[in-house]
């Protein structure tokens, strides 16, 4: 525990002295500058992280049971580095450029959107001092007048995913979440399920399952990074 506290203190101090140094090029100004954002045009939004093939408009022909999935880029690229800095070093200033990058990777949606962030484990939020997916959702919603954020999915338990294989992780993920009893689905709304990284896809699949069980079928998935190699 001591160790975690020390690390967190040190990294927050770093954030304090250099929150606006561009993580891409080192220039002072923004946490991720416009030029670096432009250079990120090689995004993988037309790429299915499940079967690892390219597709058009986020909808994979092979993975018919999955909604359209959009992402910013590969986990091993600068996007992955930005997420690490944002999430583990608690660099809140990165929530804005990350939301912008994700927004650019998403299609135009011609109706109101409700963003549903996949909930983070409570202890991680406490340790990091930020709820990174929720904060990202908030930043994303600010970019559109008819987008909002709802914590429709809550954690049913706060244990950490420890299974190494895909199947175990999916079983664990299915047990990890439940629908918020206060949440009432609405018509003519697109629900954007949001998460940071697609690793095995277990968390996202569990989220999709819960939404479908609650009669939500107009779903789009937005994630920041995917792993092309695993
Ligand atoms: Zn830059
Ligand atoms: Zn696929």
Question: What can you tell me about this protein's structure?
Answer:
The protein is an alpha/beta fold. The protein has a single domain, classed as Rossmann fold, CATH 3.40.50. It is built from 8 helices and 9 strands. It has helices at residues 2-17, 34-38, 78-88, 95-105, 122-128, 132-141, 166-176, 202-213, and strands at 47-48, 53-54, 69-74, 113-117, 147-149, 153-155, 177-179, 190-198, 219-226. A 5-stranded parallel sheet has the order 3-9-8-4-5, with helices on both faces. Strand 1 and strand 2 form a beta hairpin. The longest helix has 16 residues, at 2-17. It is globular. Residues 1-14 have low confidence and may be disordered. The protein binds zinc ion (2 copies).
Anisotropy-based shape: globular
Largest sheet: 5 strands, parallel
**Which whole number gives the mean pLDDT?**
86
Helix/strand class? alpha/beta
Bound molecules: zinc ion
What is the C-alpha radius of gyration, as a whole number of Å?
Answer: 17 Å
- CATH class value: Alpha Beta
Count of discrete alpha- or pi-helical segments spanning 4 or more residues: 8
Give the number of domains. Answer: 1
Q: From the 3D structure, determine the CATH topology.
A: Rossmann fold
Poorly predicted parts: 1-14
Strand order of the largest sheet: 3-9-8-4-5
Helix content: 25-40%
- Known CATH architecture: 3-Layer(aba) Sandwich
Q: Would you list the SSEs in sequence order as H and E?
A: HHEEEHHEHHEEHEEHE
User: How many strand units?
Assistant: 9
Strand content: 15-25%
Distance between the termini: 31 Å
């Amino acid at each position: 525990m001591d160790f975690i506290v020390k690390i967190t203190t040190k990294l927050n101090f770093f954030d304090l002295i250099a929150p606006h140094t561009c993580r891409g090029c080192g220039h002072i100004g923004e946490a991720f500058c416009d030029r670096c954002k432009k250079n990120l045009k090689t995004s993988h939004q037309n790429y299915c992280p499940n079967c690892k093939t390219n597709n058009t408009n986020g909808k994979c022909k092979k993975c018919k049971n999955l909604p359209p999935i959009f992402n910013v880029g590969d986990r091993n690229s600068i996007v992955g580095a930005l997420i690490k800095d944002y999430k583990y070093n608690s660099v809140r200033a990165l929530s804005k450029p990350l939301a912008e990058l994700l927004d650019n990777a998403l299609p135009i949606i011609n109706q109101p959107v409700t963003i549903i962030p996949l909930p983070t484990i409570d202890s991680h939020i406490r340790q990091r001092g930020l709820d990174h997916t929720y904060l990202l959702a908030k930043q994303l919603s600010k970019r559109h007048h008819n987008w909002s954020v709802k914590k429709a999915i809550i954690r049913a338990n706060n244990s950490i995913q420890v299974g190494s294989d895909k199947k175990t992780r999916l079983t664990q993920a299915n047990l990890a979440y439940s629908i918020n009893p206060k949440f009432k689905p609405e018509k003519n709304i697109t629900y954007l399920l949001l998460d940071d990284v697609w690793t095995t896809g277990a968390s996202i699949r569990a989220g999709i399952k819960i939404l479908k069980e609650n009669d939500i079928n107009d779903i789009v998935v937005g994630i920041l990074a995917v792993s092309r190699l695993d």
